[in-house]
Every structure is written in C-alpha cells, then in structure tokens.
Amino acid sequence: MATATTYGARAHARAQQGTRTEAMPVVPAAQWPAPPCEAGHLVWAETVAGGNYTHRVLARGTELRLTDLRGDACAHLLLYADGRPWERLNVADTVKVQWNAYLGEGVLLLSDQGRVLASVVADTSGRHDALCGTSTLVCNTGRYGDGTPQSPSPAGRELFKLAAAKNGLEPRDLPPSLSFFQGVEIRDDGSLDFTGSAGPGAGVTLRAEQDLTVLIANVPHPADPRPAYVSTPLEVLAWRAAPTRPGDPLWDTTPEGHRAFLNTAEFLTSRGLA
Fold first, then answer.
1. Which of 138, 249, 231, 229 has the alpha carbon at shortest distance from 179?
2. Phi, psi (deg, nearest 5) at residue 179
C-alpha cells in the first residue's frame, strides 16, 4: 500500500486496526483472554517486550502481577506515591528496616517516610534483587556497544527516563530500583553471585498500599554474565482489590512492618483517604 501521500499513509494506518503483536497493551483490559480476577476488575493488561518499558498509575488496593513468560525477563521497578513524587521507593530503607536484603512474599516496599508503598503478597520466583539497581548507558555501551533507548540494547535507566517524563518526573527523580526475576546472592567474601531466573512462568504479585505511579523497565540484569543482550517478554496484569487491613497477617509479620503499616494508615487517615 502506497504511503507517499497523506491519504495513502492514513489508509495504511487504518488498515492495521485490529492487528496484534506479541508484546502490546490490551485496551480495554477486560478483553484479556484469561483474567486472574472477577470479571470487570482487570485494569491493566500488557505484555512488555524485552528491552522495553511501561508505566501506569494504580489506585490503592490494586494488585499487580508480573510474570516472566519465557524465563529471561527482568522487571526493574520504581514506585512513587501518586501526586507526591518526593515520596518514592527507597530500596535502602526497604532492606535495612526489615533486616532482609532478599525480596519475596511478605516483604514490604517502603518509602523514606517509613510508609508502605506496596507489599509482596505472592511469589513463585524467589529470584529477585534489591542490591544492584538497573543498567546504565555507560555500562550497556561498554558491554553491548550501545545503551540508548532506540538501540538493540537499551539500558534500564534510559528507559526509566522515558517512563518518568511521561509522568511529569525528571532524571533526578530516579532512585535505585528493584529487580524481579533475575537475582543475586552475597557470597561469604562479600562478592555477588548471579542466580539468574527461576524459569518460565514464575510470577510475583504486589499490592498497592497507596495510590502509586509505577515504572517498569524490562531489560537484562546488570550482573547477568552472558555476553548477549538477553531479555524476553514480561506479562503485566493489574486488577481492583483491597489494601491490607489491620488483622491481616501481613500487618503483624514483623514489628518493623507493623510500624510501617501504622505510619501509612495514620497518613492516609489524616488526608481522608482511609
């Protein structure tokens, strides 16, 4: 079909209506073929290609499930309190407050205000990382020859910059991120041991404990020793649910977690949000 004229370009574009690629959002999300929730509750359904990114604002109580479809996805995650971007995921506090450097079910993702942004309510992977952050332009250029967003080997930070800009955020608003599905462990001598993936189909589910802006970059882990840029599709599904309430076991798993939930509840109550 000729696209040399405006009319030809328009006809070509309209002819693509209804076609699908492997990695793209489903709009509306209700058209997702196998929703993991009650009918009509799905609010986000997307497959993110390797070397790509996505972002969304989610309401408090929403559950977000990430699935490593083929075993080589790596979901680098940043969270911000929506409308208050100065309150954001603080990886250092998430680790030190909970006395735990390894992510998994029951772990709380904390801000530097001592409040819970999200909780990990399910995990079938166990291969995650709160230590290394994501890849950078310099790192990827040195390893793969290029790290720009449009290259075959985009860096996670460069993709985060694009996702951030679409939510009114700047590069200075990008703190260290968490990584899901490609993990590391600390050896006795303090060095890193890359543990890789748990394999295809592994998933992790987060629950938003505040209204959140979510940024995700699906790129190789910076400690991945393979010389090739390997990154496979990531499935992202989110649905309406309820935030964690007093009496839920998650509130009382640890004294530190209990305090973080109390801080969150007090703040939301003072704003008329809980």
1. 231
2. -125, 130
Tokens 């509306």, located at residue: 28
95-114 residue pLDDT tens: 999 999 999 999 999 999 99
Kindly state whether residue 231 falls inside one of the protein's structural domains.
yes
**Short-list 212, 268, 245, CA closest to 43:** 212
Per-residue pLDDT tens over the stretch 113-159: 999 999 999 999 999 999 999 999 999 999 999 999 999 999 999 99
Using DSSP, state whether 33 is helix, strand or coil. Answer: coil
Tokens of 267: 């703040």
- Over the stretch 78-97, which tens digit does the pLDDT of each residue have? 999 999 999 999 999 999 99
Tell me 212's DSSP state.
E
C-beta separation of 273 from 60 below 8 A:
yes
Which pair of structure tokens corresponds to residue 79? 């969270």
> Based on the structure, what is the number of domains in the chain?
1
Contact 82, 212 (CB under 8 A): yes
**28 within some domain:** no
The answer to whether residue 21 sits within a structural domain is no
Beta strands in 96-196 (DSSP E): 108-110, 116-123, 128-129, 178-180, 183-186, 192-196
Beta-bridged to residue 54, according to DSSP, are: 216
Which segments of the chain does DSSP mark as H helices, in order? 6-15, 91-97, 137-144, 156-165, 255-270
From CA 71, how far away is CA 37, in angstroms rounded? 24
31 within domain boundaries: no
> Which residues constitute the domain of residue 143?
45-270
